[in-house]
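Narrative summary of target 7.
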Amino acid sequence: MQFRAAVFVIFLVLSAMASAMDVATPHTFGHLSNYGSQLNADGTLLLHVQRNAGRTSVIVSKADGSGAITLVRPEENLVIYFSAWAQKTNRIVVSAGIRGGVEMLLAFDIELDRQVDGADQARNVQRVDLLASLKSPETYFVSALARDNLAFPIALFRDSERPAQHSLFQLDMGPGALRPVERDGDIIRFNFAACPEQAFGLKFDSAADGSIASIAYLIKQADTWRELRRINEESSTAGSALVSCSETEREVYFLDADARDFLSLATYDLDSVRGKQLSTDQGDIVNIHFNRQSGRVESYATEYDKPEWHAVSVAASKLDRHLGNRFPDGFDVFSCSADGKTCLLSGAMKGQIETTYLWREAQADNLLPLYVSRSDLAAWQLQPQSAQRIRARDGIELTAFVTMPSRTCPAEGCMTVILVHGGPGERDGVRADPITQWLAARGFLVISANYRGSHGVGKQLEALGRQQWGLQMQDDLDDVARWAIDHGLSDSARIAFMGNGYGGFASLNAVMREENHYACAVNMSGMTDLAEFIAQRARAMPEIESELHSRIGDPSDGDARKRLRLQSPIGKVSALHVPILVTAVENDPYEPLANILEFERSIAASGKGAWLSLFVLKGTGHVFNSESNEKLAWRLVDRFLARCMKEKADPGTDELTKAVFARSDDGLHLLP
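Modeled conformation, tokenized:
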């Protein structure tokens, strides 16, 4: 089956088309998601962070979600680093940044009204700029980002107009305010709200180029500083950090990226400074629930093939007994009141999207749903994304996730999409994915996999991806497809590969290996020439050049450049023998259009142009640059896969003929 080449620039989508395409397409661009939930100490008020189409809001409400007040509005366009309740007051602290580099530290004082039912209602909110007292403020050191699991973030700010000895201030999460930081020589003192009597210290060691080579965490005992733990920059980037302290337990808690293959949780005795591992589970720590009064760890969650929650305290064990059987893929606890009688937790019941619930001990069997993790999946009947362990050809264990289609497959097996995640330092899991669920609803068996180079499934597997783009990383994906065929799941003649970014690169490579006989591939803004990709990213961000060379290769070396080309789709165009769909964005900061067009020219020069369909979205962005263009792209994918698999396309794709396309005959110029 041959496809006629199509090289288009999409610059207008008619409103009639947009309404027709609202039928069950993924909304990865313009969906509503919720994360970062936390109760106040009384368990009466809820703080949560909401994201919609790249814009973030911070909201406070009653614990049941009613009476919501927006603290940070989406139109402010702020990047939220962390948001948390102060320990001793009804004050919320938000660390944020304006796109472009300006840092902000905001406090919101919540004035309460006591309701007839005894619940608190947030009434007036006063917004305070905590950095206003500093003449020239800048962030000096922050150990917390939105994804981190810190009970009390270590946040230091500097006033560059003050003398160095008196220029530093710490965010004290007890009252939620800045306080001056004392220096002890080259050691910067700080405190944890849960251990007010214990002095901690930070010491930064510099490399020859002036960058930070290592960070030492210290505690002071009998007027002597003792080193608790020293970490280098790589370990810090991987997640190592001091995360909490408990005066009552006489313990310090440390996220450790060095001790094991996975990010784990360690404790250190405050008196002996001896350490031990608290978590020894397979999988990275993905969340920790701390008691915000005492600072101690109540529970933690790990994830390898699926999330697993681990109770540490008696109170957490009781919660597990109440709720453990309600969530087949596990649940996670975000936050609890100081008395442990009211908690926020998140989990997915069978066939449903992951949802945040309010649990009260007085109503232990009842869960009050507050909001879903993704609004675009809320109305869908979801197919399970089941984890499978697969052995690669060299014996390495891979984790794959199999989602069966919504209809019965024929005897020869299911038509299948191997959905390759991007990065490649991302990961797949059992949590419902909108693209996976859309494909399953369209009748495809969907398989995704954490191949070597993926993040979050062990440092060893991630390290095995170095210098293996298009090589052993590609072998892993072929091994996953072979596993599906050998187990009778997939029809070997109807397997497609699809992905964006690295996933698109791997999808093209899959069908350009001469020994492979897949049906087709979809590449959304994926790189086509590794040497050019590395060189362009290094020009844009010189600080990551050495890491790019280490992870992928050094194109400045002539022999290495030749190898990189042979590992890339542009070096394999002569092997193309099946249809490929490529979508790109006119101004893409990661994969410039010039690379895509050079790839198109190479295909044409090889006499393979009939196999390529190329669509370029006008504007700026990576993969998708607007919600309407995303919907259009999925309709293109739906039509392409239907033709590839010899299936009937969704009738909605007929609306593609109503879109206005600008034709570029030579593929070199974008038409107005």
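Residues 627-644 form the longest helix (18 residues).
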